[in-house]
Amino acid sequence: MAYRVIVIAGFHFLFTMVSSLSAETIKGTVVKVVDGDTVTMVDYKGFKHRIRLAGIDAPEQGDQPYGKESTKGLKWLIHDKGITVEYSKHDRYGRIVGKVLVDPKGNTFCLPIECVRTLDVGLEQIKAGMAWHYKRYQSEQSKKDRNSYSSAERVAKNKQVGLWGDKNPIPPWKWRRDNRLKALQKAFVEKGIKKKKYAQEIGVDIDQLKSFLDEAIKNEDKAIKKAFEASGLEEEEFATEFKVSPERLKSALNPK
Question: What is the predicted pLDDT for the residue at 105?
Fold first, then answer.
């Protein structure tokens, strides 16, 4: 029995050592907030780093609803402040992807068991309804963080905080995909070439291209229908004002 306890304890020790070696920490000051989930920091040696907050995905800064509000919320939390980043990966853009911690404003709030000295910035963004819990990558989070992020999103959604005040907020990952499909469709139309040749140019097979173009058209039809319903105009008036052919408008309003 004693031998088994020693072996189990040994494995636990080794696992802890490996985990600690795989995770890294970097400290510095935030000098720029790019959007609701990305910042630039300068470490204590003077080197700049782009940091992508792990576990969240915020509305796009450009033209997505709540993009500007999310950016402002993150600025309030960490701009020109010292942060600690716990990370174990970089993304394809070379950004450090990690959990960002910052000292809270004012005095720390202490309980008999522990003292809360830092704020989890990603979690605060979710609580404020300024970001989604990025469940696609939740397996990279600790179980504790995964549960707290998911729970915070449910609470924000139930209270209709921030972006959850909209009836059907569009997740950033879908927003980005829809924009890419729109750009792909536009480029295809402008080139005026056959699908097969265009598919070869962009490195996809013909069936993939057809699927992408079909999805792009469906997204566009949904946008046309939504704009028409909000306009209060008759079909003919809407088609003239928004430069949509009557046939396309009918197709959008009555999808097969």
Answer: 60
Q: How far apart are CA 213 and CA 20, in angstroms?
A: 46
Can 52 be counted among the known catalytic residues? yes
Strands 48-53 and 96-102, how do they pair? parallel
Calpha distance 106→109 (Å, rounded): 9
Stretch (H or E) spanning 57:
strand 56-57
Active site residue 60: yes
Q: Which of 50, 52, 177, 247 is catalytic?
A: 52
Sketch out the chain's domains with CATH numbers. 25-165 (2.40.50.90), 172-253 (no CATH)
Q: Which residue has the tokens 């970097």?
A: 26
pLDDT digits (tens, 9 = 90+) for 44-79: 999 999 999 999 999 998 889 999 999 999 999 999
Mean pLDDT of the residues in the chain: 85
Around Cβ 126, how many Cβ atoms within 10 Å?
28
User: Contact 121/100 with Cβ under 8 angstroms?
Assistant: yes
Q: Which of 24, 50, 95, 215 is catalytic?
A: 95
Per DSSP, the residues of 151-164 read HHHHHHHHHT-GGG
Q: How is residue 65 written in tokens? A: 């609803």
Active-site choice (60, 124, 190, 215): 60
Encoded tokens for 214: 């079909």
Which of 142-146's residues contact partners 24+ apart within 8 Å by CB, and which partners?
145/55, 145/99, 145/120, 146/55
